[in-house]
Amino acid sequence: MISANLLALFYLISGVLFILALRGLSSPETSRQGNLFGIIGMIIAVCVTIVSVGNFSTGFLYLLILLLLGGSIGAFIAFKIPMTAMPELVAGFHSLVGLAAVFVAISAFLNPEIFNLGFPGNIKIVSLIEMSLGAAIGAITFTGSIIAFLKLRGIMSGSPITFTAQHYLNLTLGLILVGLIFYLCKTQFDTWFWTIIVISFLLGVLLIIPIGGADMPVVISMLNSYSGWAAAGIGFTLENTALIITGALVGSSGAILSYIMCKGMNRSFFNVILGGWGATDQSSLSKSKEQKPVKSGNADDAAFLMKNASSVIIVPGYGMAVAQAQHALREMVDVLKKNGVKVTYAIHPVAGRMPGHMNVLLAEANVPYDEVFELEEINNDFANCDVAYVIGANDVTNPVAKTDPQSPIYGMPILDVEKSKSVLFVKRSLSPGYAGIDNDLFYRDNTLMLFSDAKKMTEDIIKSL
Amino acid sequence: MEIDPFIFRFSIFILSIFIGYYVVWSVTPSLHTPLMSVTNAISSVIIVGAIIAALAGKSENVFDTANIFGFLAIILAAVNIFGGFLVTQRMLAMYKKKKKDKK
Known about the structure:
The structure holds 2 protein chains of 2 kinds. Chain A is an alpha/beta fold. Chain A is built from 19 helices and 8 strands. Chain A has helices at 4-24, 28-53, 58-80, 86-110, 125-153, 166-187, 190-208, 216-238, 241-264, 269-274, 277-280, 282-287, 299-307, 318-323, 326-338, 357-364, 375-378, 400-403, 454-464; strands at residues 118-119, 122-123, 311-316, 342-347, 372-374, 387-391, 422-427, 447-451. In chain A, a hairpin with a 2-residue loop joins strand 1 and strand 2 (122-123). In chain A, helix 4 (86-110) packs antiparallel against helix 5, helix 5 (125-153) runs antiparallel to helix 6 and helix 5 (125-153) packs parallel to helix 7. Chain A is elongated, with a radius of gyration of 25 Å. In chain B, helix 3 (47-55) runs antiparallel to helix 4. At the A-B interface, helix 1, helix 2, helix 3, helix 4 and helix 8 of A face helix 1, helix 2, helix 3 and helix 4 of B.
């Protein structure tokens, strides 16, 4: 047994180590050390908790077995998962944190004595509010992340599911939750507690189904944030500083990422959360269906253009991830570099299905991170570049965002691909992107469409280089 | 007059939000995916609650309902802790700088 004060100091140390773990991510060089700090923080928190409970009977044996069991499952997943599946992995992990928060809240509710929260039927009001909030947010995180996981994995269609009065239903459920928490505090009646959890599970599903596939970066960040707030809620219940600090860190981290993603699409957070972007634009899609001339080419044309260029900028998007084209892309770039072509990569904040998705894929393909640039850093370079190679990106290059105030993506920051001398656009067809609008760039004189699978086309280009 | 301990915890909470705000803004955008996986791993520190729920208790019987929920939470959090930190490590190991001889 260690004293409560010493315990609190250890938790503080864990909290500080977690802050350092995030701080390390400010640059790739310090990031690995940061991750180590995080691991140490976690080990400290777990060990001092076990010591403080001081129960080394059969229960401790079960704890070790379960820790090992869960740990090996986690480690197995971590080593086996392909980098392209990172978004669904993160969504899946969020759901586990959410469910763990619900379980801890339930056991605190069933057995409040062990946490010094009072007795069953007579739990402190503050603790009741804290644990119901923790359980509710945890439950929303759990089912919401499951839906996000299913959508990202392609098990569930990525298109938004909407029905009439959806938002009113969600609002009503939210109000019911508040009312139930109030009644729970007043009556200590356990039925209310279970109802809170059930409604929150339902609400998690309802909140995420209307959000479409390409808005997933926002959803994942948001669920990341929720899992943090759930942890903080439980931290307040258990009066545990490590959990409160961590919950606050994770909560604000997820909120900032959501904000960055929304800004990358020039949309308000509520606009994304209320969902159904792609679904509303069907009419404008059909009316702009008239035939416009398109120049299309093959791998030889592309190879010729790039070989004779002095600078090439690669613009990757979700299509690259789907086609798993990152390795082929790197090989192509290597060949180009041998020919004295300067190659850089331009990444839009919302490219892919989660924040930083493209960066991880390029890193996996051994692309040095100092050749990869963010939108603001590289956007002016397009004017001086000979060839822009757009692979699997679409809406983020659409000049309509700057020219047409009627367009749903008007005002969204885009990569100024159209300013480069020629644009190579690898795409399967002329079909519009997620926003449901035609890309002007397809019909420009300096654009050459390469109709093919991203990986196959890139490999063909390597051959003809 | 005595201050409720809740207020202290609330102060820690609010200050941590500010720390989180400034620290996360300084994270380079290319590391946003590792940021998500590592925040996921550290939020699994909820395991401390699970450990208390699983092990503490008046009864000798470890299979009290409250304990069982604690044990379940331990498995979930353990998957997350190991999975989260290891996958972050794996990703971060891939970020390499340009070799000096090039350029």
